[in-house]
Each structure stands twice: as structure tokens, then as C-alpha cells.
């Protein structure tokens, strides 16, 4: 059938808008990619080609394959574009690789992937089974289907994501149609390699989803039913918006729900704005966060604001190297700046009977193309334990260029001080090396404002009273390494956390 489909179109050039959605779906396109093709085909040829070049991984391979097989042309000069090359109309000019056929004819791109992960949490008071965790996995995907077999510690698990026309079925311990991080999270594992086109989303506990994918005006919506005992003992409903910008789950038996938001808006007059949020609503206790970021034109004015509720209920859902709270904490933080040079910060936290808040201002006293020297004045207030107020005065060297950051300095307080530093180096578009640390001296009675590694959001800040924290992160499409070391004051039991993940893909 697939051979006849290709042969029936052989030798006939087409414009992108002449390819129908059923033809794209038959060629292995997921509905959202087919919808994007149709939407972009209505725009100028240059826009369509720009969109084609922006695709990555499997989506790029699917578009390129249909492009060649359908003999797509953008212009009326009887030439067609394939990838970055301009090819003549004669099919014999195609490379042998382009004309390769499998036994079933022209097949959709497929791949086998495999890898492993290992983590060690070296803490004296934890039992051995909670310190070390390891996994190995093998999987494959093609024609819009994906499967995986895993061994997590001593347990075997599986995961499948199957699509047929407008229906989706996911089952097992890896795949789900919703992008939530907290939902049914496996407490002993997490994926640092989750990104667009990756076959490794966050590990989950046993869950099953069955849904219907609805295409409305070139946009794909999905809704259906699910059951995940780790989230709720009752089955429920789920919903996913186009591009997975919004999704939610709801279980009626215990009225438990979870909401996910990841959306952005661009305006010629008002700049770029983004919101990220994830929350779990429960009668027992609700947790979650909201993060907002706004940037003016040319990123001159920048606003970051985050509010979250952290509690023991949440832990086991996130990476175990974080200090687990004993009681819930509500925290809010806002930072406003002009080109990261002049600005102010505000923080407020309620944790049981402990209240902390503060504010700060910073400005440069030396500017150069090689970096800037920044002065920061910050007020710290604590009530509940010490009823203490103190002033921090800090000087920093800082250099920023796009996503690259170099920053280090020292803050002096009445009862001590702290060294702070951060280094972020992106390599290309998909590799990041990041180092951050804080070293506290003396006996500061208020905690440090420390930017954590993030999980479901691009930014997170927390209060930390550890005397020393060192964190190293390296992430690429195929390898991930996280190392964290921290010490408490007057405590002989430091915490060392190491997590290594490897992913290898082989195209077939």
C-alpha cells in the first residue's frame, strides 16, 4: 500500500499546500506535525523553508522524507528543495540513500535507543536501598509508535505509546500524553535527558491513558481517561491543549487534580512574556509553583517572579539531592532589572512559625566589555526563631552573553559572610555546562538566597542554611552528569549526590 502511494505520486511536483492531511498522516506524521505543515504551507515559501530547517530529530526526518517522495517544490522554476540542497526534477539525481527501500517499501524513519542511569546519595542516616539506584533500558520507535523495556533497580518495567489515526494509548512506567513532572513521578528516578524529540520523558509509576486526538482548525487537542494509582486510586479524565501548553488531570473519586502550564506570548510593543506552572490540588495538601518572566524589546528590562508551595508531600517526586522540608513552606520572589545591571529583589517566606523576608538593590560601579563589577545591598529579616535583622553588602564580578554567565563575589554580613559563584557555558544549541556554589562563613542567622537546579521550570530560588554547597551539571542530548555536595554547620555528615545518565540512538 505504501509503495503504491508513493508510485502514484512519482514524477509529479507539488506545492506544500497540495499535500493533504490524510496523506501526511498516512506517511507517519503525528497530527500536530501534519497540522503545522498545513499551517506553514499557507505562508510565504521562505517561511515554510525556515520552519522546515528549524525541525529536529524525528520530525525533521519525516518532513524531509515526504518532501523528497512527494517531490515538493516551493517555486515555479521546476526545481525542488531537499534539506539544504537544490535538486533537479529528475529522480535519478537523488542519492542512493534517498532511494533506499525496505521490504515494506518506503518506511517511516525508525530508531533503536538504549542507555543507563546510575545515582548515589551518600548520606549516613539513609538505608542502603535509598542511597543507590540504577537502571538500564532498551527501546525503539517508528511510524509514530514508541516502546521501552527497563530494569530499575531489581524491578522490570515497560512503556508503550501507541497511536492509531486519532487515538492514543499509553501504558507502563515511562510514557504519558501529559507533560507533567509531578504526576505519578517515580520517587527514585528522573530524566535529565527529557527534551524535544527525546524518547526519554520522566520515569513514572504504572499508569494507563486512552485518549482521542481532535484536530480543530489545524490545532490538535487531546482528551481521554486515565488511571495512575500513585496519583489517585480512582480513574479520571485528562486534557491536553495544542503544543502541550496547557494540560490537566482530574480524579472524581477523591476530587484530586493537577494542572500544567507552559506558554509564551510575543508582542512588538510589549516584548516577550512567559508563564510556567504546575500544581497538585488535594484535600490533604496542595503543592506547586507559578513562574513568570517578562522581557522588553532587546531584553533591556527583565522581570522574574515565582511563587511556590513546597512540602514533604512533594518530595519523592523530585530529585533526592535536595534538602527535604519537615513542614510546608510558602515562598515568593521577584526580581526586576535593567540589562541585569541595575535592579531590585524581594523575597518572602513562611515556613511553620518561621517568617523570613528581605529586599535588595544592585547597580554597577564599573562597566566594560570584559565584564562588570556589581554592588549589592540586601536586607534580611527573620522572625520566629531569632527575631533578627541584618544587612548584607556584596561586590560581584559578572559577565553575561546570551545564555553564558560568569558571576562570583562576596557578601559581608554582621555575623559572617558568604562567597557566591555561578558559571554557565552553553556549547552549541543543546549542550550546557553549569557550576554553582556558595560558602558561608561565621554564624549568619538568616538563610542564603540560593538559585537551585530546576525541574519543571526554568527558574527556582530557595532559602538555604548550609555552610557549603557545590553543584556541577553537564547536559547534552546523549549524556547527563549531576554532582552536588553540601555541608551543614557543625555537622560531620555531608551530603554527596551523583547522577549519571546515558542515551544512545541508532537510526534504522
Key phrases:
about 500 residues, mainly beta, 24-stranded antiparallel barrel, 6 helices, about 50% strand
Q: Could you explain the architecture of this structure?
A:
This protein has helices at residues 2-7, 21-26, 31-41, 45-54, 57-69, 128-131, and strands at 80-82, 85-87, 110-122, 132-142, 145-152, 155-164, 167-172, 207-216, 219-228, 236-240, 246-251, 256-267, 271-281, 287-295, 301-310, 329-338, 342-351, 354-366, 372-383, 388-401, 404-413, 416-427, 431-442, 448-451, 461-464, 468-475, 479-487, 495-507. The chain contains six helices and 28 strands. The protein is mainly β. It has a domain at 2-108. The chain is globular and about 75 Å long.
**Rg from alpha-carbon coordinates:** 26 Å
DSSP, total strands = 28
State the shape. Answer: globular
**What percent of the residues sit in helical stretches (DSSP H or I)?**
under 10%
Q: Report, as a whole number of angstroms, the end-to-end distance.
A: 21 Å
The total count of helices amounts to 6
Main beta-sheet annotation = 24 strands, antiparallel, barrel
Protein name: Porin
In brief:
This is Porin. With about 500 residues, this protein is mainly beta.
Topology of helices and strands:
Elements lengths: L1 H6 L13 H6 L4 H11 L3 H10 L2 H13 L10 E3 L2 E3 L22 E13 L5 H4 E11 L2 E8 L2 E10 L2 E6 L34 E10 L2 E10 L7 E5 L5 E6 L4 E12 L3 E11 L5 E9 L5 E10 L18 E10 L3 E10 L2 E13 L5 E12 L4 E14 L2 E10 L2 E12 L3 E12 L5 E4 L9 E4 L3 E8 L3 E9 L7 E13 L1
Antiparallel strand pairs: 1-2, 3-4, 3-28, 4-5, 5-6, 6-7, 7-8, 8-9, 9-10, 10-11, 11-12, 12-13, 13-14, 14-15, 15-16, 16-17, 17-18, 18-19, 19-20, 20-21, 21-22, 22-23, 23-26, 24-25, 26-27, 27-28
Amino acid at each position: 500500500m505504501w509503495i503504491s502511494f508513493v508510485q502514484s505520486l512519482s514524477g509529479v511536483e507539488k506545492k506544500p499546500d497540495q499535500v493533504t492531511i490524510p496523506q501526511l498522516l498516512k506517511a507517519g506524521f503525528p497530527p500536530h506535525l501534519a497540522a503545522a505543515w498545513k499551517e506553514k504551507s499557507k505562508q510565504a515559501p521562505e517561511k515554510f523553508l525556515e520552519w522546515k530547517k528549524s525541525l529536529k530529530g524525528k520530525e525533521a526526518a519525516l518532513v524531509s522524507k515526504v518532501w523528497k517522495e512527494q517531490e515538493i517544490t516551493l517555486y515555479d522554476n521546476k526545481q525542488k528543495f531537499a534539506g539544504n540542497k537544490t535538486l533537479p526534477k529528475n529522480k535519478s539525481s537523488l542519492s542512493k540513500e534517498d532511494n533506499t527501500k525496505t521490504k515494506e517499501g518506503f518506511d517511516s524513519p525508525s530508531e533503536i535507543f538504549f542507555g543507563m542511569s546510575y545515582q548515589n546519595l551518600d548520606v549516613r542516616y539513609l538505608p542502603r536501598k535509598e542511597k543507590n539506584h540504577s537502571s538500564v533500558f532498551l527501546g525503539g520507535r517508528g511510524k509514530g509508535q514508541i516502546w521501552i523495556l527497563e530494569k530499575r533497580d531489581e524491578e522490570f518495567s515497560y512503556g508503550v505509546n501507541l497511536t492509531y489515526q486519532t487515538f492514543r494509548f499509553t501504558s507502563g512506567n515511562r510514557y504519558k500524553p501529559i507533560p507533567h513532572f509531578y504526576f505519578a513521578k517515580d520517587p527514585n528516578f528522573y530524566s535529565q535527558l527529557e527534551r524535544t524529540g527525546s524518547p526519554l520523558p520522566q520515569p513514572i509509576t504504572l499508569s494507563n491513558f486512552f485518549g482521542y486526538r481532535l484536530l480543530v482548525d489545524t490545532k490538535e487537542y487531546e482528551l481521554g481517561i486515565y488511571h495512575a494509582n500513585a496519583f489517585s486510586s480512582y480513574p479520571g479524565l485528562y486534557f491536553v491543549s495544542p503544543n502541550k501548553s496547557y494540560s490537566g488531570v482530574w480524579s472524581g473519586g477523591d476530587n484530586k487534580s493537577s494542572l500544567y502550564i507552559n506558554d509564551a506570548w510575543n508582542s512588538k510593543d510589549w516584548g516577550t512574556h512567559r508563564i510556567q506552572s504546575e500544581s497538585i490540588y488535594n484535600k490533604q495538601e496542595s503543592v506547586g509553583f507559578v513562574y513568570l518572566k517578562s522581557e522588553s524589546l532587546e531584553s533591556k528590562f527583565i522581570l522574574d517572579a515565582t511563587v511556590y508551595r513546597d512540602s514533604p508531600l512533594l518530595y519523592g517526586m523530585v530529585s533526592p539531592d535536595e534538602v527535604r522540608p519537615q513542614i510546608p513552606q510558602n515562598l515568593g520572589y521577584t526580581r526586576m532589572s535593567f540589562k541585569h545591571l541595575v535592579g531590585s529583589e524581594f523575597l518572602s517566606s513562611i515556613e511553620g512559625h518561621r517568617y523570613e523576608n528581605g529586599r535588595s538593590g544592585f547597580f554597577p560601579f564599573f562597566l566594560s566589555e570584559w565584564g562588570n563589577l556589581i554592588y549589592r545591598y540586601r536586607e534580611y529579616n527573620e522572625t520566629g526563631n531569632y527575631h533578627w535583622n541584618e544587612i548584607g553588602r556584596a561586590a560581584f564580578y559578572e559577565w553575561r552573553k546570551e545564555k553564558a554567565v560568569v558571576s562570583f563575589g562576596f557578601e559581608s554580613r554582621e555575623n559572617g559572610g558568604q562567597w557566591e559563584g555561578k558559571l554557565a557555558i552553553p556549547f552549541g544549541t543543546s549542550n550546557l555546562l553549569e557550576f554553582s556554589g556558595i560558602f558561608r562563613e561565621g554564624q549568619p542567622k538568616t538563610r542564603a538566597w540560593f538559585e537551585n537546579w530546576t525541574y519543571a521550570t526554568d527558574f527556582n530560588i530557595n532559602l538555604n542554611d548550609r555552610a557549603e554547597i557545590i553543584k556541577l551539571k553537564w547536559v547534552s542530548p546523549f549524556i547527563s552528569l549531576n554532582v552536588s555536595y553540601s555541608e551543614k554547620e557543625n555537622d560531620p555528615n555531608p551530603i554527596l549526590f551523583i547522577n549519571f545518565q546515558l542515551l544512545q540512538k541508532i537510526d534504522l
